[in-house]
Specification:
Trna Endonuclease, Chain: A, domain 1; single chain; 2 domains; five-stranded mixed sheet
Length: about 260
């Protein structure tokens, strides 16, 4: 993932707690840890210090990658005869600043960036956000197609449903809450385009009355699923679960020291 810069930090500028925590500092997801390499570095540090002094030596290492946004960390602390680490080493990935209005940025990078910095969703190019939404539904098992930007009939994405039926999605990158009028527009678009179900995805929330109108539309034979910013982030995170493997294989934290080398 190219949204990360692979830097080393001076230990004096980093809170030691960050070196040992096992959750992502960006999206709070539990890191996928490399226990084999943790054991190597712990053995190295313990033997290195343990053979040179008479104090009890204990080394703790946390080496892992976030399975959602791809952030990684290498944190090692060495305790020599005390409750506080006598030394610690920290290497982490830092997040680049992406211009989300640039439509040339790869979709995978945009998705990872959104999971790490979801408040930036309001800056994403609207067309790019439609592509992101379509890709997330693809990862959830649907065949999805983004419609032409002009003349789309009020439908931004089409999903293939069961029995040759189709689902029409409307995507709104808004800061303001979605009004009842927007749901009426989607219902009309479903009827005119022959879709049997609708989904409304927004980067914000829905106004009062929207959910009641969606229920009425469902009773009329046109069910509409409402996905606000929080629900879409949850779907995006699920879709991201396999993305960390690309980073993990490269081991961006560098080589782990082994005793005798």
């Amino acid at each position: 993932m190219s949204i990360w810069l692979y830097d080393s930090y001076n230990p004096t500028t980093i809170n030691p707690k960050v070196a040992f925590q096992s959750d992502c500092i960006f999206c709070n997801t539990t890191l996928v840890r490399n226990h084999e390499e943790e054991e190597k570095i712990e053995l190295y540090e313990t033997l290195n210090y343990g053979l040179s002094d008479n104090f009890t030596t204990k080394c703790v290492a946390v080496i892992g990658i976030c399975p959602i946004c791809g952030w990684w960390k290498y944190g090692v602390g060495t305790y020599i005869g005390g409750s506080l680490p006598s030394s610690f080493e920290m290497r982490v990935a830092t997040l680049k600043k992406l211009d989300l209005s640039d439509v040339s940025i790869p979709i995978n990078d945009v998705r990872s960036y959104l999971t790490a910095k979801y408040e930036s969703r309001f800056k994403i190019d609207p067309r790019m956000f439609e592509e992101v939404v379509a890709s997330v539904f693809r990862d959830h098992g649907f065949t999805s197609t983004v419609t032409n930007y002009s003349g789309d009939g009020g439908i931004d994405i089409i999903l293939d449903g069961n029995d040759n039926q189709t689902i029409g999605i409307q995507v709104k990158r808004y800061k303001d809450r979605i009004s009842v009028a927007k749901i009426r527009e989607l219902t009309g678009a479903l009827v005119l385009n022959g879709h049997t179900k609708g989904i409304f995805v927004t980067t914000s929330e829905f106004q009062e009355g929207v959910y009641s109108l969606a229920d009425i539309s469902a009773h009329k034979g046109y069910p509409i699923e409402l996905i606000d910013a929080t629900e879409f982030l949850a779907k995006l995170k699920i879709a991201q679960l396999s993305s960390y493997k690309e980073v993990a294989e490269k081991k961006p934290w560098g080589s782990v020291r082994e005793w005798g080398l």
